[in-house]
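Handout, page 2. Input:
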Amino acid sequence: MLNSARAKILKNEHGFSMTFIFLVLVIVLVVAWIIPSYLKIHNMAQQKATRGDLDNLRKGINLFFLQRGRYPYSLEDLEPNFVHPFPQVRLGLPGYPETRQVTRVLVDSGMWFYDENTGEVKIDCSTKDRDGEVIKDW
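Output:
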């Protein structure tokens, strides 16, 4: 009789087995480890893509200047002949949403910054990137 009670407990017909609980725990731990790593890699990729878009905007401004002898009045003047499509700022940082907007005043907005007098273009963000460099100094 004692053996049948022990067998019933080990069989555990009405609950979860220890193997199942252990498996679920391992899956939860792996997911908890993967998600932050994925977000970090995704944010780094967004910053690298934005940095490449910044380089393309600068090349488009220089080409515009070479062809017309002046800098464009706005960055939107570069589209579609010099830059297409007009890129977004994607920093992957909290407080800086993805945007295509352009500002002419540095206020840490996370937008494109453009000075039509000098042709200077940069990103209006005083936060450091993943490499420790201030983004507006890119």
